[in-house]
Amino acid sequence: MLRYIRIMKLLKDKDIESANGAGETFLLGEIIGKTAPIHKEDYSIAVTVLEKGGKVIPHYHKISDETYIFIEGSCVMKINGELIDISKGTTIVIEPGDVHEILPAEEKCVFYAITIPAFIPEDFIAD
Questions:
Q1: Neighbours of 73 (CB within 10 A)
Q2: Within the chain, where are the H helices?
């Protein structure tokens, strides 16, 4: 219970980083990971908030698996050329080498991104 309270407090108190370069319009806050407030080497968890019109550019990862768990809103993802309608409750697993993106959101969309091993910027390769 204590760890749950600590994470929820971090989500409320932490300044969430805004990423607006290379076509992205989203807020990202890593809460567990290599450089996060709760340090872990083997995995990371980030909260991503896409506002209306926000998107994530096409990219892939050489070494990491990602799992997205959508907790609010809806959007459309493209994975290896396939369009997937996403809504609250959807879980997506992305393997290393899968080119993926989120198209401009028509409404606010919020999801957890779980990365194994922990996210490192060098493993984000724009396509």
A1: 19
A2: 2-13
